[in-house]
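A note from the maintainers: we've had questions about how concatenated examples are separated. There is no special marker in the raw files; a new sequence line simply starts the next protein. For clarity in this README we add a label.
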Amino acid sequence: MRCPLALAASALLLLGACDGDEPTPATDPAPADPSAESPEPESPEAESAEAEDEAPAEAPAERPGANRWPDEACARVIVVAYQGAMAAPASVSRSEEDARARAADLRTRVTEGGEDFAEVAREESDAASSGPRGGLLGTYDREGFPAIHEPIRDPVFALAVGETSDVLEAPYGFVVARRCVVEKIHTRHILVRYAGARNAPDDVTRTQAEARALATQLRAQAIAEGADFAAIARESSEDASADEGGDLGLVGRGLLAPAYEAAAWELQDGAISEVVESEFGFHVIQRIPDDEG
């Protein structure tokens, strides 16, 4: 599977889009774990006739072509695993038949019942990675869609923004997918790692408290009048993006570590965050205007 180089290189890349073992990918800044779940988008497989009847009630928004990035799709998913499915949590004991019926029921709740898709995903999805993120799978073009989720790729791209799929079948269970608007954010960051943090090299020996203190010092430097954030990142960041002044490029929602992403989207262009902790360490983030290279 292909993955944008800028993302693959950075410690901040999330959801496994670049990982090979996926049912819940994982890579630097955006963690996804390929294990107990069957997370993100899944495989396309139409379900029951009764699901088809519900689709019109959804009032799908604009067609994909109306998006700023028409060749990419953002998706949220609800995954229902069953005993024996790939990466199914040990606690799952339902049969395949029961899983299919449950997925159909959850689909009805978010279509006919009008329940919030993200909330239902948080409460009901068996995907350990995407579930807590409100089912957010991420944003991908067709070539970059994670291999484990390729079965649902075409069904997702066939949806209008805001529209919900029929129940789809994936190796790790049954999936209900909703296409969301593609949103992207451009940031740069400074990362300070500590011993035991995700992906931290063996030569990183500072404690978590020491890492936080150093990140706080670096933030003070970054917000000082006349400071050059990119220069500080080149000098002090411990992420692979340091050579680029900490620049992660324009990244679709759902592909960065949750804590990082949440903080970044709260920033105004040019603003610098407080110290943000993710599983990779402590970050100081600056939001860059989308049109700035």
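[label: protein 2]
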Amino acid sequence: MASILATSSYLLCIASLCVASYLLSLPNVHAEQSESTASFTITNDFIEINSTTEGTIQSLHIPKADLLFDVIGNTDQNGNLLTISIQRKPELQNLYHDLELHKGSHDAVFIYPSFTQAAYERGGFYDFYRNNCDSSCLTVPIPNKVNGFQSSSIFGAWALKLLNYSYVKDQDVDQNPDILKQYKRVIVLHNEYVTKKEFDAITSHPDVIFLYPNALYAEVQANYSTNTITLVNGHGYPDSTIKNGFGWQYDNSKYEYNVDCNNWNFYMAGNYTMLNCYPEFKILHSEQLIRSLQLQDPADLIDDLANWLRYPNDPSAVTELLSDYDVQGKHVPYWVSNSANLVINSEITKSDFANMIQYLNDQNLLN
């Protein structure tokens, strides 16, 4: 019998991320945004997610055989979906051994977006945005446990934790920004709402992967004596013209509503690695996406540079190179080869090369 939840959102509840399998509980759900609805279906053979965001309808149908983890629906006597659990598949232990980090590894850490979870809770920021309450809704409690949903990238957090990735929460970084310096790589999820301290700690780290778009979008201020956060700037507040509250030039929120991720691609933006879609469900069944998180260069930049140097007039080589910078074009001037060789030989930084490609694009010199 199919397990179906037809609501405006779904809520995932777990006490902590430190367990072998994770459970999400679905009662009392509410809309993440007024423009967004979602339904979740689980059968013995597939899971299906139907979502409508800002008028865009997207349906994801994923055979269970393709999933890297068991996603199990738990129903009441009438077949209504009450909870969902996610755990390792016994038959994939060798794969997990290949994909996972060693326990206690400092190679990578992900940041669970607890402030974003708080912002989307009932009586929070989105009730204010929808004019359902006054500015009192712009101060909300910091959650003391993970009650996540799609907007707080809960499936991504679960998948990484099941593979032994270390994690910290927003408040951990805000209270101790140096905590990120312990790790070689920082993986940012949908950390849409962060403090200025957290923003600075993330953007100053030398190796950051923004696995979800729309991160670092609005500034909040934390008050640990009252255990609350308050919206300060961004997301149309306090002025409707304000989008990114930090004025961050690498904001990639335009990809937030691409949830199928069929043509996912990592690209370089400045010194950061970013993904061109919202991988909340893709991460459940894309082995290559997970493997990319451990590559030295997830954007395949060096390989694409070398390929373009070999075949500078090959349209596919040009496309692959420019996609590493989220840029479209038909031609790269051959003199760029000098700088490409400098990048390969580590004589200039990838960020320097990215700035040059962006300049050529701005000057319409790639067509």
